Amino acid sequence: MRQIMLLFFIGLGCTVGIAAEKPFFAERFDQGVEDALPKGWRLKQWTGRDHDVRLEKSNGENAVHLISDHNSFGIVKKFTWRTKDHSLIRWRWKVTELPQGGDVREKSKDDQAAQLYVVFPRFPSAINSRLVGYIWDTSAPKGGKFVSQKYSKTRYVVLESGSSETGKWISEQRNVYEDYKDLFNEEPPDADGITLMIDSDDTGSRAESYFANIEIP
Question: Could you give the domains of the chain?
Fold first, then answer.
């Protein structure tokens, strides 16, 4: 009886622990497709008419696979997010092809194979929203922080750069709340979701990447 009770409380503790660890947001890309996109996401096309978005297994990972060929597009997940309360974001990504000569520091070469944006709307949103972009660049140095040459309210953090890690799954974690304060020198408003993006239009080339296991604890 004593052993049974002990096992019961151990099991109860495990159950409580699992419940307590449920994240604020989690995307495992295991819910299927809707309108040819991961369920719950929508398309945002910037340039070109074509886009290539696939749900696949890659090295055992459920992933969204993005392919850009002379175009620019992303997929958007809308939800309200108070980054002061849930400051961390984690994800895994893999790049298999970089846009040739892409460089976030130059307007005419501003292409990246993998970009994750957190959007902070400010009225009027079309011209005043702030964006924190985490990118895998072709040329700009890893660890660099840059202002977009196309839209000054987009600020970038280069998490990976170049081809030395292409073809490998890389795990990332960032404190979005602290990054926003560092990049904009102000308290952030509520975010309204995340965007996964790829582009190769400025360089007139091709790019390819994967995203998996996005989580906000």
Answer: 25-216 (2.60.120)
Which of 170-196 are b and which e, b meaning 16 or more Cβ less than 10 Å from the residue's Cβ? eebebebbebbeebeeeebeebbbbbb
Largest CA distance in the chain: 73
Q: Is the per-residue pLDDT at 60 higher than 90?
A: no
126 has pLDDT over 90: no
Report the predicted TM-score, pTM, of the whole model to 2 decimal places.
0.89
Confidence of residue 2 (pLDDT cuts 50, 70, 90): low
Amino acid at 116: L
**For 91-124, how does the pLDDT look when each residue is reduced to its tens digit (9 = 90+)?**
999 999 999 999 999 999 999 999 999 999 988 8
Output the pLDDT for position 59. 86
CA separation for the pair 213, 115 (Å, rounded): 15
Whole-angstrom CA distances from 178 to 65, 84, 188 are: 29, 9, 9
